[in-house]
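BACKBONE STRUCTURE TOKENS:
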Amino acid sequence: MELVELTPLSGALVGLPGVNGLSTEQRKRLTIAVELVANPSIIFMDEPTSGLDARAAAIVMRTVRNTVNTGRTVVCTIHQPSIDIFEAFDELFLMKRGGQEIYVGPLGHHSSQLIKYFEGIQGVSKIKDGINPATWMLEVSTTSQELVLGVDFADYYKKSELFGRNKALIKELSVPRPGTKDLYFPNQFSQPFLVQCLACLWKQHWSYWRNPPYTAVRILFTTFIALIFGTMFWDLGSKWKTRQDLFNAMGSMYAAINFLGFQYSSSVQPVVAIERTVFYREKAAGMYSALPYAFSQFLIEIPYVFVQALVYSLLVYSMMGFDWTAEKFFWFLYFTYVSLLYFVLYGMMTVAVTPNHNVAAVISSFFYGIWNLFSGFVIPRPRIPIWWRWYYWATPVAYTLYGLIITQFGEIQDTLEGDGRTVEQYLKDYFGFERDMIAAVALILLGFVILFTFIFAYSIKTFNFQRR
């Protein structure tokens, strides 16, 4: 941070280009800093000053110069440099069209050696005071000047003493010193898997913590929705005298899970899409592999989703008047938490398997409709045609409703008015819900979380939608 003069911005978000966050010049310096983390011995830059004004270009090149002063080699192409920027370079590799070398050697103080070389060519005009050596160099070495002077600058360089010295230096450096061995790296990445995971998790922590539009707003949204649903379905959880009471309670759970779940899934997609762009660059730089990134992206969501699920459960559970026992509240919190978590992971997964979050949103919307249809609320499982019933078992929302209903009402032995059956028997006959299935339903929902996480990690590792 000190090397690239970004210490004052250490707590800032990078943001989106042209929208918010760092300026173009600051982003270029940050890019240099990110590459320096890997401690490379040589850095290649392609026009680091392009798109910058004179002041910004000077700041970036000062950063490049600071990098060189630490003992690293920086090779970069430069476009229309000012005198100050041009003279910050130590050596110049100049080529004409076709890739033929014209000059390869040191610039010298105030470009003295470059000027001496070209002024030594017969017919080349002398440089005037105040003229940029870079501009003068390009003007005197154009193809038209070659025709006027009758000189091929590429041939002239190959016959020069400078060319001979360069060839001799290359030959000398190409011979390994006695006792040295070829470079060998046992692993592609410098750090072990666990260290990569911790580093990625640390990075994701700060990325989320410094992103209130996503994290804080989502918590506020959850609180607001919990208050709405709590007041809308006030005291429904304590009523089970009639079938309509059960339908009302189940409908409140169905509406809340879908409403929150769809919102969570949709809101995480643009965040993951932006993070994936950063991942492509950092993976290409050899910082870490795909799996640590995927796991950290999953793990960082766990505490945030838990806080939101806890806030929602406390508000809704108390306002809807469910039975305040430790077991029932635990199951309500568990099924709410795991359900919101698999919705978030489903949103992440759809981004990982598609080129961008817009396509992911279209695919997600399709499955939201399918999940709604086969959730077991619109049409109970026993009434779904047998050839479609398999999809009920493949729908995570169905297990959410199964778990929430059976843990709150599955053991009630009161007789329903106008029906003659107990609440437990009615749930079993009409919906197919059995109290003994609680543990299996809880494990299956956890299985969906693991499945979506695995698909997300595998897709991030396998697919690369980056367009260059």
